[in-house]
Structure formats: C-alpha cells, structure tokens
Structure to design on (349 residues):
C-alpha cells in the first residue's frame, strides 16, 4: 500500500465510530505501514493526572505493559518533557544515557528494546489525551524521516483516541443542551467540547455532588429541575440531565451533566417543585413541613395543587409522574430530612 493511501486509511480509522479501544488497535495496525516499529504502546492520559492507562499495544508482553502503565513510566515522561506538545522524542535526544531512566534500565533493555520514538498526543485547543511510544530492537536511532512522519500523524492519532468523542456523542442525545460538564470520580469536572460552562457546574457545587450520588447509586439516567440564582429560583429553573459515562470512557470519568432550558412545567411553582422533590424521596407531610420550615397545613395545600396540576389522584402517582417527566427539584445531598434525626415531637435534634 502506498504511503498516501495508508495516511488516508489512518484518517478514516481515526474518524470511525468504533469504540476507542478498537480504533486504537486499528490505528496502530495502519501506523505500522507508515512508521516501522517492533512494538508499540498507545495509552490514554488519566484525566485526573494519575499517569496513563493502556489503550492498545503491539507485540509487548504483560510485564512490559504493566511497567509502561505504572508510575515510573509516568515519571519518566514528565522528567523528559515528553508530556508537552513537541516533536517525537528518541532516547538519543536526551542529554544523558537512557540507562539512567528506570524505564529503560529495568524494563525495556531487558526486553530487547533499544530505540524508540515517543510523542504525547494533544487535540485542540491543547488538551492532552494520550501518549504513544514506538519501540524497536535496533540499536540505531530512528530516522529523521520517521520522526517527521510521526509528528505529522500525531494529531490524527490524538483525534482517534480522544475519549471526549464518545462523551460528546452521548451529549447529543439531550435536545437543546446549552451547557455541560464531564464529572470525575473525585467530584471535580471539566468542560465538554462544544458546550459552554455554567456557574451551576463550578467546583464544589451541590449539583455536582447530587449527580455523583446518583451515579454511585447505580442510576444510568436521571433528569430533574434545578433552581437558578439560589434556592428559591429567582432566575427560574434549568433542566438537568445526568448520564452515566459510556463504557469506553477512560477511568475516572463517571458521568455527563447537561443543562438545557425547561419546557412545560404544568404551572408548577418553585415551592411545589420542592415539595415534589421531597415527595419523590418518600417523605411524609410532616417531614416535608420540617424540611421547608412551613406548617403541615401549608404542605397539604401545596400537595392539593400539585395533584391537580399533574392530574394525579394520589401522591404516589404524582411522585411517579414527577420522576417520569423530571418535574421536581431533588433534595441536595445531606440536606434532606433523612439526614436529620427528630424527636417524637418532630423537632430536629
């Protein structure tokens, strides 16, 4: 196959809709026709900055792969500056012998690997997505032609393994989504390409904690309303959709949080949406009254209005319809009546 045909095939492979792992394996198979190598390691950068996760490899045994995805390799990548946007790097470019790097002395040399080309993979506008190492048993450094070609192909490879692609595809399932974020397992988040950020998705926000709680509870999909501008929704409400991250998302990314405009809320007021949220939690009228700091008779009035607006003859059916249509404001984590203890007179203790 001619080189220009192989480049076209590489681009087509990178654009495919296969899982990221399948695309990665196919990319390495095509890349071998363009930049010869004896072994290859293609890895995703941990979004939390904890090193790299093997995505695909060629002709490397398990001990070598375990070493490459371990902390020593991550440290070597950082020390040599290979984690920055730059041309492919070879051990021959280092100002000191490769033997001084534990990765080479303890792993690669014993495995019969003496040369390599390594490059970090970035997608616009400079987001680090992964790392590629092409390994060789030759004692000769890689040719300049191979370096230049790999440098030109690096953006294609980065696009091919970008984990955000499957997340962006999932986000398109939510109609009119205007803002969004990717939620990490540690509670932090990052912006989703193509969507703006929002103050509701700032670090430490209650909405992030609620989304994480729902994913941890095993929910794959959740939709509800959230007040803007404060608890009493002075700026109205926004619809929130929480989606579990796709199966091929990298470790550490657990969910998508998407914000979109509210549609028909059946005339429900901000207070009635709060009442519905507590009703969905299974709270009694007394518990709702304590949570909202109102009289039980006020709760009864709210519920009467809610049942009428949702055309529900019972509170149970009202709760079911609220969940089905996402017409409620959920109780923030650790702020509901179930997080409190009460004495027999209903007072908080």
């Amino acid at each position: 196959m001619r080189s220009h045909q192989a480049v076209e095939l590489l681009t087509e492979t990178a654009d495919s809709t296969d899982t990221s792992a399948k695309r990665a394996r196919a990319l390495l198979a095509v890349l071998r026709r363009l930049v010869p190598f004896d072994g290859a390691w293609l890895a995703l950068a941990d979004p939390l900055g904890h090193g790299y996760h093997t995505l695909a490899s060629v002709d490397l045994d398990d001990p070598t792969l375990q070493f490459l995805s371990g902390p020593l390799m991550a440290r070597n990548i950082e020390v040599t500056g290979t984690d920055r946007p730059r041309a492919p790097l070879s051990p021959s470019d280092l100002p000191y012998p490769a033997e001084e790097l534990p990765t080479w002395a303890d792993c690669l040399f014993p495995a019969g690997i003496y040369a390599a080309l390594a490059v970090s993979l970035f997608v616009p506008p400079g987001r680090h997505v992964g790392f590629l190492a092409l390994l060789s048993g030759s004692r000769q450094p890689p040719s300049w032609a191979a370096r230049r070609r790999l440098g030109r192909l690096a953006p294609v490879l980065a696009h091919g393994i970008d984990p955000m692609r499957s997340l962006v595809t999932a986000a398109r399932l939510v109609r009119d989504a205007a803002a969004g974020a990717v939620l990490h397992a540690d509670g932090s988040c990052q912006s989703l390409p193509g969507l703006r950020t929002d103050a509701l998705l700032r670090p430490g926000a209650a909405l992030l904690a609620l989304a994480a709680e729902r994913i941890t509870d095993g929910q794959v999909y959740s939709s509800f309303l959230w007040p803007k501008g404060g608890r009493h929704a002075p700026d109205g409400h926004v619809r929130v959709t929480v989606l579990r991250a796709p199966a091929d998302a990298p470790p550490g990314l657990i969910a998508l949080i998407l914000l979109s405009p509210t549609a028909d809320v059946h005339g429900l007021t901000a207070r009635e949406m709060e009442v519905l949220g507590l009703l969905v939690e299974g709270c009694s009228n007394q518990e709702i009254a304590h949570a909202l700091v109102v009289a039980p008779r006020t709760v009864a009035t709210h519920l009467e209005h809610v049942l009428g607006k949702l055309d529900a003859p019972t509170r149970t059916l009202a709760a079911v319809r609220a969940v089905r249509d996402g017409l409620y404001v959920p109780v923030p984590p650790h702020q509901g009546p179930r997080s409190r203890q009460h004495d027999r007179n209903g007072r908080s203790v």
In short: The mean pLDDT is 88. The first strand starts at residue 39 and ends at 45.
